[in-house]
Amino acid sequence: MSVEYAIIVKNKTRLESLIERFNTKAQAKFYIERLGGNFDDYEAEHEVFHFSLNNVQTQLSKVVKYKIVERNFMPSFIFSEKNVIIVIGQDGLVANTAKYSKGIPIVAVNPDKQRYDGLLLPFDASDFIAGVESVIANQFDSKTMGFAEAKLNDGQRLLAFNDLFIGASSHVSARYKISYGAKTEEQSSSGLIVSTPAGSTGWLSSIFNMAYGVTNMFEKNLKPKRPKIKDNELLFAVREPFQSMRTQIGITTGVIKPQNRLTIESLMPLNGIIFSDGIEADFLRFNSGSVATIGIAPETANLVLK
């Protein structure tokens, strides 16, 4: 492939967001310290991130021209086949960028290994350039990763790299009719999580942790396991389903495969929502009359490996 531009995708640091909110660094510091917070941690995180970002820019400028794009512009940014994408930030930024990448190679950089787990960040500022050069030479190893898809009966759709949430936008019970396999029932719950293999170490794992924690009160020597999903599968889990005269709990979890989808019909007149990868601003309205079909999307992401 012919690479003309590298696109660096970044997010604001917590310190930058605070300064944006309070106008000055001094006012932000006063606010945090007045509430007993550790402002030094915000400054340290900011400094380490920008040290890594400057390092990335310096090395990249010797190899290829580049542009910097902030995360909040991702939904409207159009990537070209002549781009290589460098994501520098947390795992969630990789997930959010991947949805708009159109299969263009992504070199994911961990800017702070002491702070971020980096499950989706194989590179750091010291070795990422090898990944970029391999893409330019078209001799790179990569992992193809799939998306979950929520498609509404009006044609709208939403992709998720990690997970989808289907439920109510506030802390009230979600009401819906769920169909999986040969079963259909009305439910009241805290909503559903649909996870991809990439997201199985995130939100879905916290649901497993809760289930194991509660069960351990009654079952001894139970060994917790992280959820495992195959590359062409999704796993859904219903959060806190409530049984009543009208609502059932017969469908609480299941595996979604290419030939086996999940259907959910909203019974909520207001505040029904579907969002992806923890970004509540990236959502579909899911109110009465809406029917969502959850399955595996045809799109894929292309993550460059070391």
Describe this structure in words.
This protein has helices at residues 14-22, 25-34, 39-61, 91-98, 128-136, 203-215, and strands at residues 5-10, 65-70, 83-88, 105-110, 123-124, 142-152, 157-160, 163-168, 174-180, 183-189, 192-195, 234-238, 253-256, 262-266, 272-276, 279-285, 291-304. It has 306 residues and is α/β, with parallel strands linked by helices. Strands 1, 2, 3, 4, 5, 6, 7, 9, 10, 14 and 17 form an eleven-stranded mixed beta sheet that branches. It has a six-stranded antiparallel beta sheet with strand order 13-12-11-8-15-16, with helices on one face. A hairpin with a 2-residue loop joins strand 9 (174-180) and strand 10 (183-189). The radius of gyration is 21 Å and the shape is globular.
Short description:
The chain has 306 residues and is α/β, with parallel strands linked by helices.
> How far apart are the first and last residues' alpha carbons, in Å?
19 Å
Overall average pLDDT: 93
Q: Describe the sheet with the most strands.
A: 11 strands, mixed
Order of helices and strands: EHHHEEHEEHEEEEEEHEEEEEE
- What proportion strand? 25-35%
Provide a count of the helices.
6
Helix content class? 10-25%
**Rg result:** 21 Å
Q: Uncertain regions: pLDDT < 50 for 5+ in a row? A: none
What sort of overall outline do the alpha carbons produce when their principal axes are compared? globular
Class based on secondary structure composition and strand pairing: alpha/beta
- Give the beta-strand count: 17
